[in-house]
Amino acid sequence: MLRAGVVAVQGDVSEHADAIERAARLHGEDVEIVEIRQSGLVPDCDLLLLPGGESTTISRLLHSEGIAAEIRAHVDAGKPVLATCAGLIVASTDAKDARVDPLGILDVTVDRNAFGRQKDSFEAPLDVDGLAEPFPAVFIRAPLIDDAGDVAVLARWDGDPVAVRDGPVVGTSFHPELTDDVRIHRLAFFASSEAPAEAE
Amino acid sequence: MPEETDLEDLKRGTDLVKRGFAQMQKGGVIMDVVTPEQARIAEDAGAVAVMSLEAVPADIRKRGGVARMADPASVEEIIDEVSIPVMGKARIGHHTEAQILEAVGVDMIDESEVLTPADDAYHIDKREFTSPFVCGARNLGEALRRIDEGAAMIRTKGEAGTGDVNQAVTHQRAIKGAIRQLSGMNHEEREKWAREHEAPADLVHETAEMERLPVVNFAAGGIATPADAALMMHHGCDGIFVGSGIFGAEDPVSMGNAIVNAVNNWDDPETLAEIASNIGKGMKGQSNSDMSDDEKLQGRGV
């Protein structure tokens, strides 16, 4: 039984919980979802998810609830993390904004709301390294990675990185939890995004 | 390295993108603000978004007269001040106010009964807009009609500007209770329910099968304390709007922080006791049971 922690201080938690459960099923894994709103739960988790939401709110609560240091220890132990949109901002080394105190678990510098306001938000098919077919990516007031450090770039939008891997941590500017496609969750948590193909 | 993606395939303003914005607000507190200074206090307190308006509902009540969209220049000042999303209120049925708010760049439009309705028969056709809308509802029929018109988020109407949570509870119980009832019905009973409640049948079936609204469901109208906010989470809301409750309180900074913390710890009474301690007095308020139907805003736009 895998314990999957979904950081739940704010954001779209249930969507990610569903995606993790579906991804685990495709790999024949039993998974228990743990919603993390207080400290003391992260140390027992095998994998962690930082969801989309508002990065200022999530950052503030991760620190005030004492969860931030536990997430850093999780990454130091080499255990996987998927961080999406606001989660990517919170995971970065620098959000270039005093209103967010990032965790520094993903070696990138990000630009918050680089795509503009909500009316500029969009969905589009996106080619992602390791996926055979384009991924239906949903960008909502999304951040852009403007300086990727020592990380593998998995996808670019208009030349800029929007999905990266830094050791056990995968970060995306877009929201892989908003459609039924769980290939990004599989890529982040179960190493493979495709096999076993017949289970799709 | 993957190939460049074709930028021509990009789509804006789809249901997925509009409802997705609302999903990112879940577990959060959206605070009413009138000035850029208030917006800054709200952001620092941990608000997920601010609602920019000309006066908070309690003041709109006191003042009387026609309540309209805020001055676009003041909405723009608030947009420039904060990094979190900014929402704006348009009158029910006022297509043009909504267009102006979208042009200014608000992230979500609240078609709100707090303002004086512009149209007695129709709501805004929200499908025509790129921006997502939130609408109020007192029961499931109203909620599904608004979703059918294109609303990406539903909030309880409650009774805005009163600081009395009574009506928000009533409306949330009505919505949740009706969904539980529908889930136990067969196809033909749901069809009959749809006809009786003037709700689109396809949305009735979808809601019954999902056992929840197909869009995000916030609480609004009369929430004034951390305990009120936690109560609405207990009733199954996805998040909270606080109108007059923050800046009508004795100490808005403490009250704002406390309400954000209460939403994260809504199911932990011991932590709530700490959160609710020494934060100053809440807004004075006005009991809903003393009000005549004429004084209530919730009957606007059904």
TrEMBL record, chain A:
GO terms of molecular function: glutaminase activity; pyridoxal 5'-phosphate synthase (glutamine hydrolysing) activity
The reaction(s) this protein catalyses: L-glutamine + H2O = L-glutamate + NH4(+); aldehydo-D-ribose 5-phosphate + D-glyceraldehyde 3-phosphate + L-glutamine = pyridoxal 5'-phosphate + L-glutamate + phosphate + 3 H2O + H(+)
Enzyme Commission number(s): 4.3.3.6, 3.5.1.2
Record has Repeat as a keyword: no
Active site per the UniProt annotation: 85, 175, 177
Any one GO cellular component localisation term in the record: cytosol
Keywords: Glutamine amidotransferase, Hydrolase, Lyase, Pyridoxal phosphate
GO biological process terms, semicolon-separated: L-glutamine catabolic process; pyridoxal phosphate biosynthetic process; pyridoxine metabolic process
Pfam family, one: SNO
Sites where the protein binds L-glutamine: 53-55, 112, 140-141
The protein's annotated pathway: Cofactor biosynthesis; pyridoxal 5'-phosphate biosynthesis
Membrane spanning residue stretches: none
Record's function text: Catalyzes the hydrolysis of glutamine to glutamate and ammonia as part of the biosynthesis of pyridoxal 5'-phosphate. The resulting ammonia molecule is channeled to the active site of PdxS.
Family: Belongs to the glutaminase PdxT/SNO family.
Binding partners and assembly: In the presence of PdxS, forms a dodecamer of heterodimers. Only shows activity in the heterodimer.
Protein name listed in UniProt: Pyridoxal 5'-phosphate synthase subunit PdxT
Species whose genome carries this gene: Halogranum rubrum
Classification lineage: Archaea, Methanobacteriati, Methanobacteriota, Stenosarchaea group, Halobacteria
Gene that this sequence comes from: pdxT
TrEMBL record, chain B:
Residues noted as binding D-glyceraldehyde 3-phosphate in the record, renumbered to the chain: 173
Name of a matching Pfam family: SOR_SNZ
InterPro entries, sorted: Aldolase_TIM (IPR013785), PdxS/SNZ (IPR001852), PdxS/SNZ_N (IPR033755), RibuloseP-bd_barrel (IPR011060)
Any single GO BP term: pyridoxal phosphate biosynthetic process
Binding site for D-ribose 5-phosphate: 32, 161, 222, 243-244
Xref: SUPFAM superfamilies: Ribulose-phoshate binding barrel
Metabolic or biological pathway: Cofactor biosynthesis; pyridoxal 5'-phosphate biosynthesis
Reaction(s) the record says it catalyses: aldehydo-D-ribose 5-phosphate + D-glyceraldehyde 3-phosphate + L-glutamine = pyridoxal 5'-phosphate + L-glutamate + phosphate + 3 H2O + H(+)
Gene Ontology terms, MF aspect: pyridoxal 5'-phosphate synthase (glutamine hydrolysing) activity
Keyword annotations from UniProtKB, A to Z: Lyase, Pyridoxal phosphate, Schiff base
Coiled coil, from the record: none
Entry function: Catalyzes the formation of pyridoxal 5'-phosphate from ribose 5-phosphate (RBP), glyceraldehyde 3-phosphate (G3P) and ammonia. The ammonia is provided by the PdxT subunit. Can also use ribulose 5-phosphate and dihydroxyacetone phosphate as substrates, resulting from enzyme-catalyzed isomerization of RBP and G3P, respectively.
Family that this chain belongs to: Belongs to the PdxS/SNZ family.
Assembly mode: In the presence of PdxT, forms a dodecamer of heterodimers.
Record-linked HAMAP family: PdxS (MF_01824)
Protein name: Pyridoxal 5'-phosphate synthase subunit PdxS
